[in-house]
Amino acid sequence: MAGPSDNFDEMFDRNGNTRAPYIGYCDWYDEQEVAWMRQKSADCDDSFRRTGITFNVYGEDEAEERLIPFDMVPRIIGAGEWRRLTRGIEQRVRALNSFLYDLYHRQEIIRAGRVPERLFRQNDAWLPNMVGFTPPGGIYTHIVGIDLVRTGPDEWFVLEDNARTPSGVSYMLENRETMMSMFPDLFSEVPVETVSNYPRRLARSLAASAPPAFKDSGRAKPTVAVLTPGIYNSAYFEHAFLADQMGAELVEGSDLRVVNGLVQMRTTSGYKPLDVLYRRVDDDYLDPLTFEPSSMLGVPGIMDVYRSGGITIANAPGTGICDDKAIYSFMPEIVEFYTGEKPLLPNVETWRCADADSLANVLDNLEELVVKEVHGSGGYGMLIGPTASKKEIKAFRAKLEASPENYIAQPTLSLSTCPIFTKKGLAPRHVDLRPFVLVSPNGVDITPGGLTRVALKEGSLVVNSSQGGGTKDTWVLKD
């Protein structure tokens, strides 16, 4: 087996000894034939290809649809470590919901001078249509993904928040199903918390968020649907997968219309009321009567029904403001303001390029920093200084000087590594983690695991699948 790496390796310590969470797995691994493991690695790829687990890449002619690379060495987190993480995740998610409520009501955090008003007044993700309106149950972010990175044994940081439409949960589920089918004996030797009940938990959480109109309808069970932009969307596999696993309807905008003041779904026996819509359509395209008039993806009039209490939209329109990386930089203040506690999970140190002093520091140290667009995602529009060419740094310097408010900068972290399986054996690669959180009037529900993304290229810090990254099964050990 491989020895230790220069970074904090989650499987091996500096002396090459196996860390406690991995002992059961490593004992099993050492007993396996290398040729058999190589065949299993190929079988995993075949399984993903047969299942159709792909994603679309926009703006590239050579390969619009790609296979999600999967590595069969699990990322393992001990039960005690997971309990500490979940406390921090829950604290942050509760603060996000409180922040969103405040932002669309009295804006006490701005009155108190803790967050500058300019961050949302000039932000397209902040929706004036939501001002003064409280979603059913007071929940804004029903499904949240909190991206975490690790730099040491007890050093976890939040890299970014995904409060609008976090994706990737279908890969978490398929990763586990693939591992269980390939290595069933392994799960009898290592006690791992289940993630397969996530769709059931999601359905239960969404149903608990049903609007007032359902409660007055006399119907026994709310109707839940997943709204997809259609088959050409990059995450369509996930939309279809979750609808199927939840026993919910998969709909497009053309399947829905407002009838008698309610959003109703076309069926073989006419239109039927819809209570909860898990939407995977961006705010701008949700309602052509309220937002983008040319949109063919949404439902005309749905915002009026929403504001009248006729439907629950998950996640609520306007939650995208929390995905903004400039807002992220204020999360320590936001958590403390609404919880009265210091954040249990710290942010990565962040410089706001809109501030003149911060900009000067960033420009002086571009070669050492990671610079990101405040509205960016998917690994696009960013500079990783230590691996960038002089030409790339020069071009990014010009962007920063022209529009500093569009960027934040962070130090280049020594991300933890977790081994992947290669032809030569185990080799360390950098990883991050996206736990998935469900929020309803019944409380906060965190699935024990999440999506581990891995940079498959040696030395790379970019884990996004659109940038060549892959995924791993994430194990949380039982006590």
UniProtKB/TrEMBL annotation:
This is Circularly permuted type 2 ATP-grasp protein. InterPro entries: ATP-dep_Glu-Cys_Ligase-2, CP_ATPgrasp_2, UCP005522. Residues 74-455 form the Circularly permuted ATP-grasp type domain. Pfam families: CP_ATPgrasp_2. It comes from the Bacteria. SUPFAM superfamilies: Glutathione synthetase ATP-binding domain-like.
